[in-house]
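Quick log. Single chain, no ligands specified.
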Amino acid sequence: MERRERLLEVLRTSDQPVPGSKLARRLGVSRQTVVQDIALLRREGHPILSTTQGYLLPREGPPRHREVLGIIHTPEQLPRELEILVGHGITVEDVFIDHPVYGRIHGRLDIATPEDLAAFLEKRARSPLPLFSEVTGGLHYHTLSAPDPQCIVRAKEALVREGFQLLEFTPQNSPR
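-> predicted structure:
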């Protein structure tokens, strides 16, 4: 229990994601022990996020507006899509598709800054695997969060101006 309290304290005092390997070194345990401790802390209700850069404990602040955005584009348009969203102060929390055989397939992104975006695009460039959207002809969904709804409205307008096709997320066009 004391170790998990120390882990929480490290996350609370960091304004950036902390890599699991760094947590393991600071706590004197294995990376696997950190993963297990994170799982236990989440079960206790701590909202610890996993990002491409490490673990993050969101700071309490004003509530954020959340919305699901449906969008269609080619793989080559991915960087521009994310640049527009992040440039409007939006966090792209996730990506998901509704696969015709497997149902909903979901991936966590947590892209909120230009640095997050650069790290994600670098990781994407190294991967031989297709994007989720390549399985669905470009159609996919993102959960977005922003400090106020107008950030998302302005970002959607910018996406449309650049030729992206947007869809409203409803249970009718996206079965669970």
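The beta strands are 49-51, 54-56, 65-72, 91-99, 103-111, 139-146, 165-168.
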